[in-house]
Specification:
heterodimer; A: mainly alpha; two-stranded antiparallel ribbon; 13 helices; extended; B: mainly alpha
Chain lengths: ~300, ~270
């Protein structure tokens, strides 16, 4: 008897709560958003804000203690020190080279999977492009370390031509990063090519354009936003990377390595260096947004 | 576009080369785990299975695998809760700053890992250390969860946008409470999106190295950290080779699961 009474009481309590929630959408919204926003804004954005504020602090060169006095010394150093400038230019160059290489390799692959391959086989090909994305990042870089090491696959393949592999260094870094982010470029181009209306291509041919002309005047302009969308990944993922360059880059230094090497002794400098890739990526995103590519992400 | 025969053949060769470039490195990792030699010279002098049994008994690798699984499960659990909450707020409510919320969710994965890593590292240092809490597995889970939220959010919000709220309204017209309607109507609708999000979230966490480097306490070694630390040690090379090969083989599992979870949710939104 008593248990029945408590069950009934509990049920009516649940009902009342449900009713209260139903009548107050604002309360519902608050309950939904409080926990995740506390996490993302207080924990994440808060940490980021403190980090970027600390870029304006300095480090006492004797004690390695952070001195919390506002100064733009770090940014001044960033612009005037030749090593920093060199590394920043090199990092942006690597990110651009990786992006261009990815686009050049991705285009024929995507064109084949989207328009040349038999339609029945296309879904399987898409899976084949996706599969490497699930393989561990580190394992893929390690694979290239194996390929490029002395006496490895690259040396063996190029030996008949009287050449050697590139070894570890800047070219190896660009090559490995291209390999890592290639699927991110193939997929959007594949999707764009797949959705290209066949009538447009027919119309272009009817008007007397050959394949090359149709490609330049019809296909390319329609696929370019997707290339831009893919480039957001290839560019920003390359720009922030410092692990790959440690594994296959030999002595090559990129921004990430400079940030990493400054963390222990000069956190404000590391923070200032860390703002560079963030700033470049934001500028890149703003430039890309003008092409309308972000909506197709 | 009518392609000439030679253009078709050129494209076929180009695509073939592209797929070869994608898969040869992965196959090389598999073959190399059977290489009896400690160096990575090609071709291997023979094949052996003895490194596989050596790796099976390697306590460092096994321990690291276990830490990675714990971190992945923890981060996924948090990401599922937070990502789903935001997805419901964004998809079912209109409010000031809705666009900003979707932007903030993406930020942890859009910014370079090293920036997220050192930001969290110094925040943990200043907030947690005075409380007597040091870096450990817990801080790794917090760091991973921060960038895993976005994949759960993406999957769930995409599903919610395609299903209107009218099902829930119908359930409530029939007398169901808000909770009842959620359990019996909404949850079954988003279940496969949740699974896809969880799968992606676990994979992201399992693969993460940069944020882990900055949030892991002493003695906390995930599998990527272990691989990175042992990669350049010639003595450990054979075991690293086997671990790498195992990870390549394991990457088929999520692909299989994602395909079963229906192509539209899992495959299209890795990021």
């Amino acid at each position: 008897m008593a248990s029945q009474a408590t069950t009934a009481a509990r049920t009516s309590g649940v009902r009342r709560l449900a009713g209260a929630l139903h009548r107050r959408p604002r309360l519902r919204l608050a309950l939904l958003l409080t926990a995740p926003l506390l996490w993302l804004i207080v924990l994440y954005l808060g940490s980021l804000a403190v980090l970027f504020a600390s870029a304006f602090w300095t480090t006492d060169s004797f004690t390695s203690q952070v001195v919390k006095v506002w100064s733009t010394d770090n940014f001044h150093q960033l612009v005037t020190t030749p090593v920093f400038r060199e590394v920043i230019v090199r990092s942006v160059g690597v990110a651009l080279a990786v992006t261009v290489l990815c686009a050049l390799i991705a285009f024929p692959v995507a064109f084949y999977t989207a328009r040349v391959a038999p339609p029945r086989r296309r879904p399987l090909l898409v899976v084949a492009i996706l599969t490497p994305l699930w393989a561990s990042y580190l394992v893929k870089v390690y694979a290239w370390r194996l390929i490029l090491s002395r006496g490895g696959l690259a040396d063996w393949l190029l030996a008949p031509l009287g050449l050697g592999g590139p070894g570890f260094g800047l070219p190896a870094t660009v090559l490995t990063l291209t390999y890592l982010w290639l699927p991110y470029m193939i997929l959007p181009i594949h999707t764009a090519l797949e959705q290209l209306p066949a009538q447009l291509l027919d119309a272009s041919a009817d008007l007397g354009a050959r394949a090359g002309r149709t490609f330049r005047s019809v296909v390319l302009p329609m696929v370019l936003p997707s290339v831009a969308a893919g480039s957001v990944f290839t560019f920003s993922l390359s720009l922030g990377d410092y692990i790959t360059v440690q594994i296959v880059g030999g002595k090559t230094q990129l921004i990430g390595n400079l940030v990493y090497s400054n963390i222990e002794l000069n956190l404000p400098m590391a923070a200032a260096l860390g703002t560079v890739p963030v700033l470049v990526i934001v500028l890149y995103l703003l430039a890309i947004r003008r092409t309308g590519a972000l909506s197709s992400l | 576009m009518h392609l000439t025969r030679s253009a078709r053949i050129a494209l076929r060769i180009g695509a073939g080369l592209g797929f070869a470039v994608i898969y040869v490195p992965l196959l090389l990792v598999l073959v190399n785990s059977l290489n009896p030699d400690r160096s990575a010279s090609w071709p291997p002098p023979g094949l052996t299975g003895r490194w596989w049994s050596a790796a099976l008994h390697n306590s460092g690798a096994r321990h690291a695998l276990w830490v990675s699984v714990k971190a992945g499960l923890g981060a996924t659990a948090i990401a599922l809760v937070l990502g789903t909450l935001i997805a419901f707020a964004v998809a079912r409510h209109r409010f000031f700053g809705r666009g900003t919320v979707s932007f903030v969710v993406v930020l942890p994965i859009a910014l370079p890992g090293i920036v997220t890593g050192i930001a969290l590292n110094s925040a943990f240092g200043t907030v947690l250390q005075p409380l007597g809490v040091g870096l450990g597995l817990f801080t790794v889970i917090v760091g991973h969860a921060t960038f895993c939220v976005v994949v759960v959010f993406n999957n769930v919000v995409a599903r919610l946008r395609r299903t209107t709220g009218s099902y829930e309204e119908a359930a409530m017209d029939l007398g169901a409470t808000t909770f009842r309607a959620f359990l019996d109507v909404t949850f079954p609708l988003v279940r496969s999106a949740l699974l896809a999000g969880a799968l992606l979230s676990f994979a992201l966490s399992f693969d993460e190295i940069v944020v882990t480097t900055f949030t892991a306490g002493p003695g906390i070694e995930t599998l990527p950290i272990w691989i990175f630390g042992n990669m350049t040690r010639p003595q450990q090379a054979p075991v690293v080779n086997v671990v790498a090969a195992v990870l390549v083989l394991l990457s088929v599992v999520p692909i299989y699961l994602a395909q079963r979870l229906s192509a539209d949710t899992a495959t299209s939104s890795r990021v």
